[in-house]
Amino acid sequence: MSIIDHLETHRPGYGPEWGSGGIFGLKLHRGVLYYTLAFEARSYFIDKNGIRRIYHFENVGFQPVSGGDTYNAVDAVDGEIFFGGWVHAPAVYRGRIDHGATIDFRNKYSHVHVYDVDNDSVRLLWKEGMHHPEKWVGEVSEIIYNPVHDELLIARGDGHENLGIYSIDHRSGKAIRLIDRPAIYGAQHVDHACFTIHQWIFKGIECIDMVTHKTLIYEINDLSRISIDGDGTYYPLNGGVASLMNRLYSFIRGGLIYGDPLDPDNEPLRFIRLLDLGYSQIGPHRTNTLPLGGGLLIPFNTYSHALMNPENEEARRALKKMNTVVSPTLLLYIAPPTIRIAAALGARVTSMERIGDKIVLATNTQANLGRIDATPIDTGIRDFTVLPTSIINQPPPPVTISIPDYMHREGWMGGIPLEGYKEARIIVKTRKPVKLLIKTIDPWNGELSSETDIFQATNSRNVIDLSTYRGELPIFKYDEITEGLKTVIILE
Predict the structure, then answer these.
(1) If you average pLDDT over residues 304-311, what whole number do you get?
(2) Among 396, 431, 446, where does a domain finish?
(3) Domain total for the chain?
(4) pLDDT tens digits, one per residue of 293-303
């Protein structure tokens, strides 16, 4: 039997939190596969003979626990797996209020642990708590091992205090803050560790020289300034970061930013619109990138966050947009000069790892919920889907994207990968005449087509062929967003 044969479905269990967590941190190291099940806060260590150990975070505090990790904070070196995140120990579920339910945060800790593969043992390296009923210290969302100083560089961006980039001695657990700007995801880039500046949305790149600890801050407060098409995007929530071909890739809701923050004069940072579907939240949230075949796999999740109990009118408007699903989750393969869809899946992919000639995807049927949407049990079914690594060279799956009128927004949308599709079309349904404008992006040369194709859509069903745009990324916008407007994109 292989490790894959021992993976099992996780059905809802006790874990007072916000809706559903997921399976995070998949990491294969020296024949042992690690992952953490959130929100039940259980870490699994599995080898070819089955489950070696299930860790219940007993070194952090008292049972029952909840949380664990929701960002994929893990790295491994020399027989040790370093895993981090956050955990309630013990978890305190306050119960239902007049509208919704809440949890207490006074026992919430950020943590880094070490698993010793040879000795099958777990050691708490570092923890920190704020002991406040409503606030918490920055969660650990990324871990990068720095071999120069034999240290762990960790990102902390989700929380109220002690945010930024920290160095942790992986023997003593001593922590030193190196940058005080909140960070969420990162990757080694050349001889630096680079992270996204996090204020819930993308605000730039911060890097640390792994030799000298000298820092570099590259602030970007207006995406339109680096956008190939001149427009920004709606709520560019941060996603995974990776280094590829001497460029840093930072995936966000609405697309990706790539370039070299270490030498922006020669390789400026550019924003490429990619699967920017109006007000839809589809994007690379709460997941990771996976190097494969010299390229990158990245899921654009369609339902990673949701609301159930809106507190005011603004929240009610957000609920309608967040809970509207316009596309399946799309697994993208980035191999410049191509971007292609490798798989179409359900609510979300939370973690990925390669095991031999297989790709293991951790999946979840439900989303993280909002502040007063707490539940005493996790609401999702957490599972594993196994795909062959050859999927990166196989034909893409059929995909339908359907955008109702209230999900459209002004400005450029789209960035639709057409690679591998024989047929591709946009169907425009409208109650009054509108004009659809289409341009194309050559992402790797930073070029926008000089010409704009304009299609007149009447008050009927209008079919526009996209097949002629293969090899480029088509983007589109309307001259007017009208009631009853609907856009359907069909890829076959």
Answers:
(1) 91
(2) 396
(3) 2
(4) 999 999 999 99
What pLDDT score was predicted for residue 69?
A: 97
The burial of 312, by beta-carbon neighbours within 10 Å (0-12 exposed, 13-18 middle, 19 or more buried), is given as: exposed
Q: Does 178 lie in the same domain as 263? A: yes
Whether 365 and 436 share a structural domain: no
Residue 257 main-chain phi, psi, to 5 deg: -115, 125
Tell me the residue range of the domain where 485 lies. Answer: 401-491
Put residue 349 in one of left, alpha, beta given phi > 0 → left and psi -120 to 50 → alpha.
beta
pLDDT of residue 123: 98
Identify whether the C-beta of residue 492 lies closer than 8 Å to the C-beta of residue 420: no
pTM beyond 0.70: yes
Q: Among the three residues 366, 396, 426, which one is the final residue of a domain in this structure?
A: 396
